[in-house]
Design goal:
Layout lengths: L2 H4 L20 H70 L14 E4 H10 L17 E4 L6 E5 L16 E5 L4 E4 L2 E11 L12
Parallel strand pairs: 4-6
Antiparallel strand pairs: 1-2, 2-3, 3-5, 5-6
Length: about 210
């Protein structure tokens, strides 16, 4: 008996007859994808270049602003220290009837010493043990007193630590450089930073000598 005629035909393919679907991309589509990838890469590179240029322009300015802000803060701290030292000298004078004296054999308008020397005189009178000695830049404040002890002045040499005031000003002077001196005389600042401040060369300093 022929069983092939009675049994239904099998529609199942043999494993050997199966083929994987064609995953290859048509050439035209592939060219479009490559073109888009190249364009994206160019745009990314352009964006990175623009960001680098912007950073190169902005970062130096930000660093300069930060440095200027720190220097301005140091100026304010120096002025606060000078006020404190002046108060110490006033307390000393209220007890001794003269400001702290400095020995100087030569006849001068003001006998000079450092803040360390002034602090020793104040300490001998048990006055102001917390008297500031060094300014925010690391230099010492300067103290000058008249021979009779009735007048004194205080000075901070600014960011460069050098004395740029040849003559103590009588009239008030405003400075604009971080290197300029800060001077206190007769109970007030006669030379102080005001307005916008900047870093200056040596030729731009010393408003009292201009």
């Amino acid at each position: 008996m022929n069983t092939n005629a009675d049994s239904p035909k099998s529609t199942q393919q043999r494993p050997s007859d199966r083929r994987a679907p064609d995953s290859r991309m048509p050439p035209r589509t592939k060219r479009r994808v490559l073109a888009l990838s190249a364009s994206s890469a160019v745009l990314i590179l352009l964006g990175c270049c623009l960001m680098g240029i912007s950073a190169a322009i902005a970062i130096p300015g930000l660093l300069e602003d930060r440095e200027n802000a720190q220097e301005r803060w140091r100026q304010r701290m120096a002025m606060a220290d000078i006020r404190h030292i002046a108060e110490c000298c006033t307390v000393f004078a209220s007890v001794n009837h003269h400001y702290p004296l400095v020995e100087n054999p030569e006849p001068v308008a003001f006998s000079m010493t450092t803040a360390s020397g002034l602090k020793k005189v104040l300490a001998s009178a048990k006055c102001c043990p917390d008297c500031p000695v060094r300014d925010p830049w690391g230099g010492e404040y300067s103290y000058g007193v008249a021979p009779d002890g009735n007048r004194f002045f205080l000075e901070c040499y600014g960011s460069d630590g050098r004395d740029s005031t040849s003559i103590i000003p009588i009239e008030h002077l405003s400075t604009s450089c971080f290197e300029d001196d800060i001077v206190w005389l007769d109970g007030r600042f006669v030379q102080e930073p005001q307005g916008e401040q900047k870093k200056c060369s040596r030729e731009e300093e010393s408003p009292s000598s201009r």
